[in-house]
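Researcher: Please generate the 3D structure of the following complex. Treat every line as part of one assembly.
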Amino acid sequence: MWRCAGGVMETPLNCAEEQQLPPPLPDSWSTVTPQEPTTDRKDKGNAVGFVLVHAGAGYHSESKAKEYKHVCKRACQRAVDRLKAGALAVDAVTAALVELEDSPFTNAGMGSNLNLSGEIECDASIMDGKSLHYGAVGAVSGINNPVLVANRLLSEAQKGKLSAGRIPPCFLVGRGAHDWAVSHGIPPCPSEKMATKFSLSAYKRNKHKMELAEKVETGFNHHSKKRRQASETENGSGLLDTVGAIVVDREGNVAAAVSSGGLAMKHPGRVGQAAHHGCGCWAENTSTLNPYSTAVSTSGCGEHLIRTMLARECSSAMQCEDAHQALLEAMQNKFISSPFLASEDCVLGGVIVLRCCRYSDAQPSADIQAILVEFLWSHTTESMCVGYMSAQDGKAKTHISRLPPGAVAGQSLAIEGGVCRLGGCCSLVGSSGLRGVETEEEVEEVCHQFLQLGAAHPGLFSFFRPFSGSAASRPSTTSMVTWRREREEQGQRSESVWRNNCPLCI
Amino acid sequence: MWRCAGGVMETPLNCAEEQQLPPPLPDSWSTVTPQEPTTDRKDKGNAVGFVLVHAGAGYHSESKAKEYKHVCKRACQRAVDRLKAGALAVDAVTAALVELEDSPFTNAGMGSNLNLSGEIECDASIMDGKSLHYGAVGAVSGINNPVLVANRLLSEAQKGKLSAGRIPPCFLVGRGAHDWAVSHGIPPCPSEKMATKFSLSAYKRNKHKMELAEKVETGFNHHSKKRRQASETENGSGLLDTVGAIVVDREGNVAAAVSSGGLAMKHPGRVGQAAHHGCGCWAENTSTLNPYSTAVSTSGCGEHLIRTMLARECSSAMQCEDAHQALLEAMQNKFISSPFLASEDCVLGGVIVLRCCRYSDAQPSADIQAILVEFLWSHTTESMCVGYMSAQDGKAKTHISRLPPGAVAGQSLAIEGGVCRLGGCCSLVGSSGLRGVETEEEVEEVCHQFLQLGAAHPGLFSFFRPFSGSAASRPSTTSMVTWRREREEQGQRSESVWRNNCPLCI
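Model: Done. Output below.
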């Protein structure tokens, strides 16, 4: 079922790993480490939360890497500033998005792609994991922060019905969305101010390219209506840099948001996944049905992401025990090999995902709860730019994840991630209540894992190894708990797989 | 978990049934009956297919019942005409929708609700279960058959990429959708011609009502920003008559479509479930993962249907063994009691659902396959108008399903349905290959059920009994196969439940 290119499938996993080592961990995440068990708990309690942002799954040139990373860093900082000020996840995620939209380097808000008519039309949506409310705008012009409109739609809907029992809208498009925004105090922005030199020159290039392609096609297919399939180069080098963010706040609430200028040269009125419920973002707090709170934001080809409802699918998958394995399988089975995209030979997209649960520290008091956050990103595009930061940290860490050399965009995937622990007591020894961890032995294993990670990487971060390849060569697990079970069941084989792939065993 | 009003919960099921007996079965469905085993098979093969339409879940007054039923009848006929001409499910479902949109009595296309500005803006979508492609338009003005635009978007997307490798859109809104439609040969219609006397007078009444309500609210809540909750009367009497259809064709392909003028007095640019992937309609052919082909179309409050993604949820539920039970649970757990609508005290919506599978007749030849169609409707609104017809039938059957007296709209539900067998040999004795039917004994049971139904009702229709009430009073099963298993496991109790509720046992 894996559609990887032959060369990639044959590449030993270790080679891929050597070529794509995880980025160095941030020094500034050292405020909470196992080495500092006496740090004041109250202060930390006031600065608990985590944000993960993306500046799109697409292609990020080395020459602009610095700008992409910089905007991600600023977006993380904005969200953390809000979290530190006591804001909940929805507000923090909105703040991150505003920063991402304001950057002229991203395809959202300011500097968005121009459509066929040379206009900017934006999509954005937001979801609150606590209330499960959702707000979205589609194809809206003249608003440089579409996420603010989505946020306002969400908050207005939470207030209840309008006059005469009318139900407030959760999704507005076009001129109506613009007018609603302005009437709710969101300032309009002249469209010409939202275009940048870069977006205007890209429009001219794209228009020329399109006219040329149509001439060639007319020449080739004068008597045929069959359409040309785009070459790999066209897709592979396409910029699909929708932006998004996911946040968990001090109360453990999650929120997700996404914003996009859409595909370059799209038809006016086209709405992509960024405005589509279940496709652009998803957030669900833990419940009796769901052991984990989950948040997801997507990027890539809107039509592929709509038809597969990738955000909701990934959120649902994250309820499985092993986060890394679950996302890997979701990206493979629900995206690259999805029956909804059976006719597509190049499936382009990326996701950022987090899941979290509370657990109690047995020492010194079981009353003190911390939040364990597992966060991941995965993409089938050539690259994806991400940034992440905890409220306990001084500055964000950023990273451009790339497919390994030789991997074919749209057919292979990369997956990376980490673990972060927020608040509570620093020592994990004897901790219990972690979801999926049942026996004392399992608790010990998890503690062992976290202590090693803590010692190696201040800030309690662990990076999963990036993975692109066939099912046969993938590590069967990434969770220590699952690994232990598998080792017992299957003997030495699983253990040796782990020795090659687990950061704890090397 | 059941939110039924006390009075309804206490109503004995049999009383509810007496008050809401299934409609008489159509005489014209007698072309295929167990009494006519020698009817020419070739002719029937050319006229195989089934359509189920709805003219909305909301409130259908007795005074207009005739018009609603009449338009459903015509819509069924249009779909069947296409099926008989050899069209596949997507074309047939589109034909049904065009008829529903053209009626001035439905809230879709011609005669749609007017928005706050006194304009008509329509939503529509369509899904093809074979290709799993989807096309939608939102908030489009000046097009009297929005479903034709959705259909065209779907078919254009199936042709592959546009010039220069651009991905064709699946969802267009507003002016852009209108212009795209016109450029693809769909005729525009002046907006003033789409409004009817009825929709214009309703707009004036609504506007007056709204202004009055706002004055009253301003008086009451001058110092408070808290919004008033609408009274039950306001919701209960609201017309929410989105239209839709689901079809299975001779090849067993399914398709679904939906079209709506949206809520009366909606904000311009508001898009409802009818344009939302997974919310307004869903269709999926059978696959290695899905034993049944399923198709769903919804109606009701768009925001509730978007947030619960009801169409996709019902489709997914239909893969369970017992169709009636699965829909009952989906409507209860994924809609009325959905965590996504936890803050809503009145959840308004309705669905039409079909699922089908092929099976072989052992006599006279195992090569001849028939299609078994189970079709149902369920609603939490006061009423829902439906029509259904097989290609083997001379005319359609229509029905307005209503909640039993005393049931509270938005908190209770009604569910009804039937079974239809398309094509193949008429005798069901010895049939095998039916999904979920494993043993010879089970096959015999199913055959027994169908033969009895066939004898009682020419056309092989069986109506499930309508059900509104508490979980405690509901029948535990509706499928004979499941019943048999339960009886063996649980003894006399299940059998006595069946004696009260199964149409075969009374």
